[in-house]
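Lab meeting minutes (informal)
Scribe: AK
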Amino acid sequence: MSQLMLCSLGNSSNAGNDTNNNANTNSSMEDDDSYPLPTIYRCRAPIASLDCMEEFNSGGGGGGGDGLGNCGAVAGTKEQLLTNCIAAQAHRLQHPSPGIRYRNLGKSGLRVSNVGLGTWTTFGGVGGSGNEETAEAVIALAYDSGVNVFDLSEAHSGHRAETQLGRILSRRAWNRTTYVVTTKIYWNSKTEGRGLSRKHIIESVQASLLRLQLSYIDIVMIHKVDPMCPMEEIVRAMNYVISKGWVMYWGTSRWSPVEIMEAYTNCRQFNCVTPIVEQAEYHLFYREKPELYMPELYNKIGVGLMAWSTVTIGMVSSRTEDCGMSFLSRSSYKVKNKYSSFSWTEDETQSLYKEQEYGWKDKLVDEEARKYSDKFREVSALADRMGCSFGQLAIAWSLKNESVQCLLLGAANIDQLYESLQGLQLIPKLNASMMSEIERILDNKPSRPPMVSTLALR
């Protein structure tokens, strides 16, 4: 569709009508959060062609292309610009991903793709190779497929991941406005630079900027609350780094609803920038916080949901029988409270390495895995009938929840990422009857406890 659109621009006799018609079509499809049939996906023009339209309509001019398929404006005639845009379009369509949509994160104006790339496994986490060339191929595939969110964390692969991503982004030289980088500040009681003090937050942001070789970070998330640091100090420090232009937005990760509300209240009290997103675990077997409390936080204070799970982050085997035990053993059944499950700390990531290398397993976790293995097998059988993998079904199921504005995927190689992206095409197939069948199998739909009247307690 986008090539026909560009060709019509070159035809002077039909330029006015065709441009208006195609612009209206693309605008309505871009803003539509519904999921039409897969055939419509293949006709949808990706972001690159829309950027080309803006450059073309502005009449060309300065700036050079990066030689990697991006359609930056180049000096020359409109015919040259048209040729470059068509080449960029062909490059972006090399790995098409039907189902990519763009939504506002929380109630902010930041537009993010409905799936993002969680880079823990990409940069050498559990199952990852740690090879920078492989990581660059994964990131390039994600970007070319329309994914614009790249998530990092100080607590996962740490400083090395930020350094490698910085080198990749520098080599690729993509337009900075076309992607969103998120990272997390993590407090660790085992190091000297611990806590969420103003000093630690500012120094962490400055260090991340140097490693990423960026002038700003789009979103910085606070990874867990430091019980020894006043909330006022945290929100004032985040407001400071935003006012300096080092950070555009801030959010939280693994915070309880009470903690998020406390941060919001402090922001309002001290006239600070409020958080826009909470990053939380969400999958078929962990549903309470994302389904009960995050919609409420979104409606009341505008905090959106960026979700991840042990399936979508790429921590499961490709074989179904191994996938079940691997996923269940790392899911939220060892949760200590109902708001925060898998903690992603160094202690637990080290335990994953031990399990992978030495066969070490927790007996309690094994019991929980056996308890839920029957449900897993039934969902896997349903996925087989639909002609997809368990992971693809889990991705599509998670995105059926309208509260999930961005779901983080993980991949150690391009094959894993491509397979995960194909799961987006399942979303139209998950109709009401199919969702009811999944609910019947899971039998774990969360519900709020009944209200207890204080009069009844007297």
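Next up, CB showed the second protein from the same session:
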Amino acid sequence: MGNAEGRAPRRAEPRGNPGSFDELHRLCKEVFPPQLEGVKLIVTKTLSSHFQVTHTVHMSALGPSGYRFNATFVGDRQLGPAEVFPTLLGDMDSSGSLNAQAVQLLGERLRAKAVFQTHQARFVTWQFDGEYRGEDCTATLTLGNPDLLGGSAPNWVTTLNVGYGGAHASYYHRANEQVQVGVELEANTRLQESSFAFGYQLSLPRANVVFRGLLDSNWSVGGVLEKKLPPLPVTLALGAFLNHWRSRFHCGFSVTVG
């Protein structure tokens, strides 16, 4: 039977492509506050329209202190705000450990990515991804960790990864320009453990302030407050985290220049 007269079609507008599968989890993770402990100084320098470097110095009383150097190169072909091809990323710490990533466009709908990781002088992991972008779907083939399911809409993204070790699901929702929330659920079949986390982000553009909060199943609560200081290219961040179950508390402060 046909639709009743006056009834709106099920899809009034095309949903569009959900984007890269890696980016689906990223939206949810960015809502959560980053762990901040000790003192951190980040200096970013743009050398040209294609090349950028970042220096990070972290001093911690709980974990190892050190220095990290990051270099990013982007090509001339840009398909979106966060899609520039080719893209080369390299990150090295003071012990000589390296994380490298290369992303290239093979056609209008095909993308390839390679990821390599070393620990000091020892080669650790590698991963190759092939991605196909359709009109309203994305298919990804990964040599390493299989990605099976993902979906999205203009204001929400839901993602599910299933592998031999367990499953990872996330849900991201953008309520408005100021409020974003994210939920993550991870299950580890080898350790017979599961965890749940809820994060939120509050933005005050007029005050140049962003606050991210966290609550998880390990009885941890925390938050990070970021404040930009225009016209200076400086961002100040203050974070504090408390684990009620283990009676642990730590806080940190960071300065980002660039």
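CB comment: The chain has one domain: 21-257.
No objections, moving on.
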